[in-house]
Amino acid sequence: MSEIAIIKFESQYFSVKDTLECGQVFRFLPYKKGFKVYSADKCCYCYNEGDFAFIECEKQDEQYFYNYFDLSRDYSKIYNSAIEENVDILTISAKAGKGIRILNQDLTETLFSFIVSQNNNIPRIKGIIEKMCVALGERKEFLGEDYFSFPTAKKMAERGEEFYKSIGLGYRAEYIRRLAVEIEKGLDIFEWKNLSTKELNKKLVSIYGVGKKVADCVSLFGYRKSDAFPVDTWIEKVYREDFKGTIINREKIAEYFSNKFLDNAGYYQQYLFFYKRSKEKE
DNA sequence: GTCCAGGCGGAAG
DNA sequence: CTTCCGCATGGA
């Protein structure tokens, strides 16, 4: 039995539920007072209670999850900047999603996950990724329960297109398989860490199965390029209905928001996406 | 049955 | 350069 560490953090700018459910991450499950969250080969249990958020994990993973939940960043600055923009829908969205933080996710997992996400809905995306982990990941244990790690590229490269179709990937099967093979052959996506957002985008889009939208998500959630502004169907609705925008081309809508909100664009995007999607579900 | 989901690749204009 | 079309799957 390994030792458990508990991280305690003020909840004013940290809602575990909203942070997990704002669409940036796909591997988490309700558990007791909150959620179990899985990242790469690690797991933690987190929840809000009183005026705090708590994260329980193995002692050796304490730094990993401190960084994962982006706890060294001051979100009051981001939140206040959003309010100061003086844009109604952004003010409403920021207030509704005040506790949202952008996670520092595992890069490889983020890239594969957002390829799965294209033209797909969040419950299905979760299911497909879970099947990949169960089939190809490594069995681990946390708080007395088994779970599976996100598979390595090596493991993924061993399986054919048929396997990926069998877990529901449809036409995306070949995208996943080919990326795994490329990484196995030496493609190093970590090398792109220090590129500008624009140069990074070029590299990402060159991957088979990665277009502008997925590239923006991976830039924002994996590489933490906060000027990236992913435009999906929900954000397109926000743009049309709330910003009264007239541009049709999604790439240009993304450019519009990146230029408008600069290094806060990605954070605002999460507020907007979360609010728009939560309203539609009612 | 139709429509849609955190879209993309490839062909055609 | 931009626009259009086919694509797998499952839930509403």
Tally of domains? 3
- In DSSP terms, counting alpha (H) and pi (I) runs of 4 or more, how many helices? 14
Biggest sheet overview: 5 strands, antiparallel
Arithmetic mean of pLDDT: 97
> What fraction, in percent, of the residue positions are helical?
40-55%
What is the approximate shape? globular
- Spatial strand arrangement across the major sheet: 1-5-4-3-2
Share of residues in strands: 5-15%
As for the CATH topology of the largest domain, it is: Endonuclease III, domain 1
Q: What is the SS-derived class?
A: alpha+beta
Number of strands: 7
Rg on CA atoms, Å: 19 Å
CATH superfamily of the largest domain: Hypothetical protein, domain 2
Provide the succession of SSEs.
EHEEEEHHHHHEEHHHHHHHH
Task: Report the top-level CATH class of the largest domain.
Answer: Mainly Alpha
In whole angstroms, how far apart are the ends? 43 Å
In CATH, the architecture of the largest domain is Orthogonal Bundle
Spans of 5+ residues with little confidence (pLDDT < 50)? none
